Amino acid sequence: MIAIRRDLVRMPDGDVSQRDVVVHPGAVGVVALDDAERVVMVRQYRHPVRGPLWELPAGILDLPGEPASTAAARELAEEAALRAGRWAVLADVWSSPGMTDEAYRVFLARDLSEIPAAERYVGEHEEAEMSVARVPLDEAVTRVLEGDITNAMAVVGILAAARARDIGFATLRSPDAPWAARPGNHG
């Protein structure tokens, strides 16, 4: 899923310095916003932080050549058993550019519909115990500001969705908009 690359980088003063880079395939996340302006959140155990976090439906771009928008739709279906009739890009983010090339794209999904029970994905490992909740968008913003929602992708997505809503969703990009961080993998 990830690799470590060691680069030798010439600094502005001419010195050469070593940099270790976590190479990452990229990821997508989905702010699924229902007609009542509630955000679909998942609560999932995350081993590195030794506990559960409130997150957006999300996943790694681990299928070669799969468009980011297709991956986002797949993650929404797998983690929240939902489909969306309208998609847009909310934000493109470098997660921690001082140590990794991981980039993620956060989508806004609206016009949600439930996937019939017989067609739903059956999760494994951490996903088997994942719970799903719908949180009013304004409450989610408050929870971000109070430190209750701390997953970076969720923080970015929730705040971007609230701003987008406040301006009437006027400046959102198409789900297939170019993605500078992952030029071969947009929309």
Task: Report on the architecture of this protein.
The protein has 187 residues and is α+β, with helices and mostly antiparallel strands. The protein has helices at residues 68-80, 137-145, 152-166; strands at 3-10, 16-23, 27-32, 38-46, 51-55, 58-60, 82-94, 103-114, 131-136. The strands form three sheets. A four-stranded mixed β-sheet has the order 6-3-8-7, sandwiched between helices. A three-stranded antiparallel β-sheet has the order 5-4-9. Strands 1-2 form a two-stranded antiparallel sheet. It has a single domain (27-167), classed as Nucleoside Triphosphate Pyrophosphohydrolase. This is ADP-ribose pyrophosphatase. It holds the Pfam family NUDIX. GO terms for molecular function: hydrolase activity.
Shape: globular
Supply the CATH superfamily name: Nucleoside Triphosphate Pyrophosphohydrolase
CATH topology: Nucleoside Triphosphate Pyrophosphohydrolase
Radius of gyration: 17 Å
> Sheet bearing the most strands, described?
4 strands, mixed
Count of individual domains: 1
Through-space gap between termini: 21 Å
